[in-house]
UniProtKB/TrEMBL annotation:
Coiled coil: none annotated. Gene3D superfamilies: GntR ligand-binding domain-like (1.20.120.530), Winged helix-like DNA-binding domain superfamily/Winged helix DNA-binding domain (1.10.10.10). Residues 11-78 form the HTH gntR-type domain. It comes from the Bacteria. This is GntR family transcriptional regulator. It holds the Pfam family GntR. Keywords: DNA-binding, Transcription, Transcription regulation.
Length: 218
């Protein structure tokens, strides 16, 4: 595979393979739809297929790649139309969920959301973007679950894989302040704790649209 570079050391191989292949996707050396051939990647990097397999699983989990049974794994492809459609639906879902949660102010749910904000802050400080994205997605999943409307949770579970792809693939070159992104989620949490349903609904809708002033919003 052109551009892979020098062989890797044997320390944390799956992490190194993930970082290397992710870099190729982010930089555009691997395009949407390109197949991730584990044997080829392993050969080019001078490692066995085991760490490559783990790295590809991580890429699939984070939305950078799609796995198709009996065909293999491919770099995720997100069209602008799909992105617009997903965001439009998400605005409605999160606005509805935020209104419901603000009206109830369930302490257990609020604490779960607060824990994810802490995770985002710690991940931002450590520069662990994979962990940040996991906490980010979980924050919004918990919001839907806390709404006590089972249909919202079901809709979110259907959309989550696509949202991961949108989050990672559609703006992979984000160079903004991850700590500021974590702070914005803290502000969103404050709107829920305020028990002002209109304020919370408006804040989450704006966030879903990307109108909250934070580039690369979740």
């Amino acid at each position: 595979m052109a551009g892979v570079g020098e062989p890797l050391t044997r320390v944390l191989l799956s992490d190194q393979v993930y970082t290397r292949v992710r870099g190729l996707i982010v930089n555009g050396d691997l395009k949407a739809g390109d197949r991730l051939v584990e044997a080829e990647i392993a050969r080019d990097l001078g490692v066995s297929q085991a760490p490559v397999r783990e790295a590809v699983k991580r890429l699939v989990h984070e939305g950078l790649a799609d796995h198709i049974p009996r065909r293999g794994s491919f770099v995720a492809d997100v069209s602008s139309q799909d992105a617009d459609a997903a965001r439009a639906v998400r605005v409605i879902i999160e606005e509805f969920a935020a209104r419901a949660v603000a009206e109830r102010a369930d302490p257990e749910s609020v604490e779960a959301l607060r824990a994810k904000v802490r995770d985002m802050r710690e991940a931002a400080e450590a520069g662990d973007i994979g962990r940040f994205r996991d906490a980010d997605i979980a924050f919004h999943r918990i919001l839907c679950e806390a709404s006590a409307n089972p249909f919202l949770s079901r809709i979110w579970s259907l959309m989550e894989p696509s949202l991961r792809a949108l989050r990672v693939v559609s703006d992979p070159m984000f160079t903004g302040d991850w700590a500021e992104m974590a702070l914005q989620h803290g502000v969103l949490l404050e709107t829920l704790e305020s028990a002002d349903a209109d304020r919370a609904a408006a804040a989450f809708a704006a966030h879903a649209r990307g109108d909250d002033g934070v580039l690369g919003h979740s």
